Amino acid sequence: MQTLMRMIYPSQCLTCAELVVDDFALCGTCWRDTSFIKGLTCKSCGVPLPGDDDGTLVQCDDCLRVARPWTRGASAVMYRGNGRKVALALKHGDRTDLAKPAARWMVDVMPEQTANTIVVPIPLHWLRFLKRRYNQAALLAKEVTKLTGLDYVPDALLRTRSTKPLDGHTRDARFAALENAICPNPKRFSSLNNRPVLLIDDVMTSGATLAAATEACLAAGADHVDVLTLARVAKDA
Fold first, then answer.
1. pTM
2. Beta carbons of 111 and 45 less than 8 angstroms apart
3. Half-sphere exposure of residue 179: CA atoms within 13 angstroms, side-chain side
4. E-strand stretches of the chain
């Protein structure tokens, strides 16, 4: 039956119509145009850095300038080329199917976690949720938990007010816009208290959203917070 189905519906590249061997795969061209993050990376955001990885924990210039409230961070791809295409299709193009392969890429670079860690997505304001019909961070987080076996708490955080899209805003403007915009869910304090948190989002730009969410987790008593995103925006991207 599987052979017959593959004959009728052959596997296609995630981001183009090219035929591929396996489901949820990229063709050679799209793979080469996807900037997977490897080698020496910033311990706080996962952006690639020049030099060899000798196990020393280092930070990029952005993370040295702006204190990060979370402990460790990682990103799977750079927000450019096909990585940008995947992130945008997942967020705005109704390509919810991309969450599964994207989560695999994320787990490959995920900071090591303990069995007690809970996975928490960046929350979406209910007005934006009604418009988009899904939260892309929650889709990624759910797939990460399927791959890792960690506990998933989708409503641990709440978006208390809607913020305008932050594309093109300065770093200071982004942080100002997110002030007091995310808070812990009073019904989930017990889930957060004394537990390590793995915070999930689709894209990290300035880190303002992740910082606001991290501070909300810590305010609820989280032991510490690590962050994991699909894509990282960087100046050289």
1. 0.89
2. no
3. 6
4. 72-78, 118-121, 151-152, 157-159, 182-184, 196-204, 224-232
195 DSSP 8-state letter: -
Q: What angle do CA 26, 28, 31 make, to 5 degrees?
A: 55
Torsion of CA 120, 157, 235, 77, to 10 degrees: 20
Give tens-digit pLDDT for 130-139.
888 899 999 9
How far, rounded to the nearest angstrom, does the alpha carbon of residue 26 sit from its chain's CA centroid? 20
Alpha helices in 149-234 (DSSP H): 171-178, 189-192, 208-219
Task: Assess contact for 225 and 197: CB atoms under 8 A.
Answer: yes
Task: Please choose, from the candidates 231, 221, 218, 168, the residue with its C-alpha nearest in 3D space to the C-alpha of residue 194.
Answer: 221
**What backbone torsions phi and psi does residue 225 show, to the nearest 5 degrees?**
-130, 130
HEC per residue, 61-87: HHHHHCCCCCCEEEEEEECCHHHHHHH
When pLDDT is averaged across residues 138-157 and rounded to a whole number, the result is 97
Residues with Cβ within 8 Å of 37's Cβ and at least 6 positions away in sequence, in order, are 46, 47, 48, 74, 75, 76, 77, 78, 109, 232
Q: What are phi and psi of 27, to 5 degrees?
A: -75, 170
